[in-house]
Amino acid sequence: MKPTQKKSHSAEREFGGTLGATCIPVFLPLTVLYLLCVCRSPAASVLQWPPLLPPASQLWDPLALLLILGWVVFQSFLYLLPMGKVSEGLVLRDGSRLKYPINGFSALCISAGLFAVLLWLGMPLGSLFELMLPLAVCAIGVSFLLSLYLYIRSFWASAPALALGGNTGNPLYDFFMGRELNPRIGVFDLKYFCELRPGLIGWVVVNLGMLMKEVELRDSPSLAMILVNIFQLLYVADALWNEEAVLTTMDIVHDGFGFMLAFGDLAWVPFVYSLQAAFLVIHPQTLTPLKATAIVALNGVGYFIFRRSNSQKNQFRRDPTHPSVAKLETIATATGKRLLVSGWWGLVRHPNYLGDLLMALAWSLPCGFSHLLPYFYVVYFTILLIHREARDERQCRAKYGLAWDTYCRRVPFRIFPYIY
Ligand code: NDP
Hints:
Order of helices and strands: HHEEHHHEEHHHHHHHHEEHHHH
Strand order of the largest sheet: 1-2
Structural class: mainly alpha
Bound molecules: NADPH dihydro-nicotinamide-adenine-dinucleotide phosphate
Helix content: 55-70%
């Protein structure tokens, strides 16, 4: 097939337009490496001046490349195994619907079984701690190469297969946002695979590696490390258990697959989201039972809000007549879809973000208050979700017009009740 020549170019620019799309791919990978360096330094100070630079000799290790490639191949193999059900995504602009395997939770369980065997065989999983920098370098390299491949192949995609937002004609911006909506090699959906598999399950593996390093150094894992591992495992397991819900998210439905998602999924999630566990290896913390109980309670409340609100909306979108949502108050929109204005979605316009942020705080608290670094995730995630809320708001206003304004009047707060 010939490369497609003429496309209807999208005009809207997000993430700071061309400037953002040029700076972010440079700035964020450097941030990952910087945070990893700071994390393992005794002072662990993010405000240290001059900033810590990783020694070049610690950036590359062929074993790291082998591990990253092996991990992606292993997860691809699990993705392709005919286990679990197959679901259809939302209707695309050309009227078709793509099919997706729902076997992410099985992939997590099989991966867990594999690591149980490897640990039993005496594999030094704690060595991941020493390999963090070269592993991150390789993951960043893979996400750049993947984004380049995605950008080039998108010129062979048909017009309806392009994302509305990543098709401006500006190469830097389109490389960053992603031109093609659902790039596939045969039945293998590259975006859907990256969204929930190698990086997300990889995050749990990195955490486990940090726990095993603590065992090497101090004979047993600390309560703080155990809590961080359990909380984040619960989060990942929940995402994979509810894998079908990802099919209706902005990432799958709206965003093209480019550097933003590829880097986020493959490098940022496994190496930045695991910072608390990496921090605890060098900076052990003692938690009293009372503090631990309070942190567990905070994570529990956050998870409750996050899960119940996400499930309520998903149930409502799948079947508005289901008894669990049928009695909720709704408003009509011109598209035929209704918006919930009571229940969780009547409390704030993004109750799921509120729950997510409470959990983020609970993941940092086991690291104590002596350093800012473990709170990087909470600060970053608050910014991400406030920005994401604004993007979603723009899309919903475009979709629902006056009905969305009515919803905003009925539910004035976005994420934090009575605050924002
Ligand atoms: P949401 O699940 O918040 O979905 C937003 C969509 O829900 C809107 O576009 C609209 O779509 C629908 N909607 C909004 N308001 C209503 C309403 N009142 N009634 C009915 N439908 C409504 O999207 P996200 O993808 O942003 O988030 C999904 C989850 O993923 C969240 O829990 C979030 O916290 C989490 N997340 C985690 C990240 C991480 O790195 N850990 C990153 C990003 C998200 P429509 O009307 O078309 O159905």
